[in-house]
Predict the structure.
Amino acid sequence: MTCQDRSTAEWAARPYTIGPAYWPTLTLRALVLGPHNVPLITDPSAAARDIPLATLSAITHAKDPNAPDILKALAVALKTIDEETARIFAELTELGLGKALAAETWRHLMAVGLSFFRSETSQRLRAEGRAEGRAEDILLILTERGLDIPDTARERITTCTDLDTLRTWLTRAVTADAAEDLFAEAGA
């Protein structure tokens, strides 16, 4: 559990006992992270060494006057990891900040800060991922419709990287009588 103030964190960390007072059967002790036991991480290199801890630092210290520095360090650190992981931590941070004023700072940093993922390589990788996903969708539709998918058709679908072609095949997969119908020329 995470808390943004010490008093709530200490309250939540108290033991909770289940059972009658004369015969307690279970005592729960929640793991509570708050500003009292999570370090302030304002150094980008320290944040990059431990991004999960830097994320927890940003969340638990959201009401701290140093929150903007913590968030900036985390934003810089996210640039050192792969895009998918960075997006997960960025989303986790935003959710963890809740309605704290720091959330607005974080949204601004992310609007600008993740633009480094717009490189040609990142765009190519995203396009490849979309093509793979669309090919999987085509095969799923054909399979769910009970159509046989010959190896040659499967290979042609899975190796295609042209999103427009895949979109055409996806549309045709919904009504095709056979997998080979996907590849028919328009007007044929």
